[in-house]
Amino acid sequence: MTSGLEKPFWTDSHCHLAMADFDLDRQGAIERAKAAGVGRLVSVATNPDDWESAAALAADGAMIATAGLHPHEASRWNDKVQSALAKALGHPKVRAVGEIGLDFHYDLSPRNIQREIFAAQLTMAAKRRLPVIIHSRQALEETLETLRSEGRGVSGVVHCFTYGPEAVRPFLDLGLYISISGIVTFPKAGELREAAKLVPGDRLLVETDSPYLAPVPFRGKRCEPAHVARTGAFLAPLLPLSTEELARATSENAARLFAWP
Question: N or C: which end of the chain has fewer CB within 10 A?
């Protein structure tokens, strides 16, 4: 992979390469991404078990890492976890707090705990002047409320955006980027496609969320970073942009958000 912006390439702004799903072919997945024109990767870590391994993967300028406690894991929060996260955020390759947020679809942690830990991590991000990667599912108003009250001045991205057109402007007004995943290629994702058209070119990112959410025609199989090129190629004519224009714009946006040279 290249670490420069000399020619258009894709940036997968959200993948989970440290997960066990990639244990058998992690380097192969990275090489396939390179072959597909993916020049940069953001390795997102969601719990204490993968904070260190995600950072260790980011060995050169083509990959950075993040660290945060996912809302599914919010019940794990305690002083020890908070201290471990603070340490993880001090790693030079860790460039964002995330993913963090609210998930009221699965409710794997109590909602009040999710809100509390989301707010705590927004505070950590603000103190460290780091952007945040936000997970929000079936919790639109609660996410916006928490960001307005606890996340003032914090930059970041709403990853794997799944809300409709009406939700785009409130997040943009908070200064956030919006990231589109392979869901946009699904036949029933018409509302998401309409929402994507409303995102300004300087606020848009693309991602895989791999190993989840493989785009058509890979749906049902393990997703991997190479597939961001497929998602981008699908999305570009909707905007309308050429694939090269979208690749360049979204990569420049990612570089700006995550402080990549």
Answer: C
pLDDT in tens, the chain (261 residues): 544 446 899 999 999 999 999 999 999 999 999 999 999 999 999 999 999 999 999 987 799 999 999 999 999 999 999 999 999 999 999 999 999 999 999 999 999 999 999 999 999 999 999 999 999 999 999 999 999 999 988 999 999 999 999 999 999 999 999 999 999 999 999 999 999 999 999 999 999 999 999 999 999 999 999 999 999 999 999 999 999 999 999 999 999 999 997
Estimate the crossing angle of helix 111-128 against helix 79-88, to 10 degrees. 40
Q: What is the CA radius of gyration of the chain?
A: 17
Sheet with 177-180: list strands edge to edge: 10-15, 38-43, 63-67, 94-103, 132-137, 156-158, 177-180, 204-206
